[in-house]
Design goal:
Protein name: LX12B protein
CATH superfamily: PLAT/LH2 domain
InterPro entries: PLAT/LH2_dom, PLAT/LH2_dom_sf
Number of domains: 1
Shape: globular
CATH architecture: Sandwich
Structural class: mainly beta
Distance between the termini: 12 Å
Organism: Bucco capensis (collared puffbird)
Helix content: under 10%
Order of helices and strands: EEEEHEEE
Length: 109
């Protein structure tokens, strides 16, 4: 099994985040990851706003955020070729805007 870390950051302005469901699929030279929902952040027990002082404290997903996530794959993907972002409306709510400022991916180990 291979684990990839994904760090996602929204822009610094208010309402840069989203209430929509966000997911990711990684494609490499040796295969592709399952579609993975970016729901629960992996930041331990420290609130994200204490880890990233450049952001204004806010607990709403609509506020600027930085999250660290894990994508688990049955095998290593080789050299990454493509990263696909999935954005779907949350429940029956209308789709909302989302400002993705940056995304970084690296393999654990």
């Amino acid at each position: 099994m291979a684990t990839y870390w994904v760090q996602v950051a929204t822009g610094p302005q208010p309402l840069a985040g989203t209430m929509d469901s966000i997911g990711i699929t990684l494609l490499g030279t040796h295969g592709c990851s399952p579609r993975t929902a970016l729901g629960a952040m992996v930041l331990g027990t420290t609130p994200w706003w204490q880890c990233h002082s450049e952001f204004v404290p806010c607990v709403s997903p609509a506020c600027p955020q930085r999250g660290l996530y894990q994508v688990h794959c049955p095998q290593a993907l080789g050299s990454l070729l493509l990263l696909q972002i999935h954005k779907d409306p949350f429940g029956n709510l209308p789709e909302s805007n989302w400002y993705l400022e940056s995304i970084s991916v690296w393999q654990e180990g």
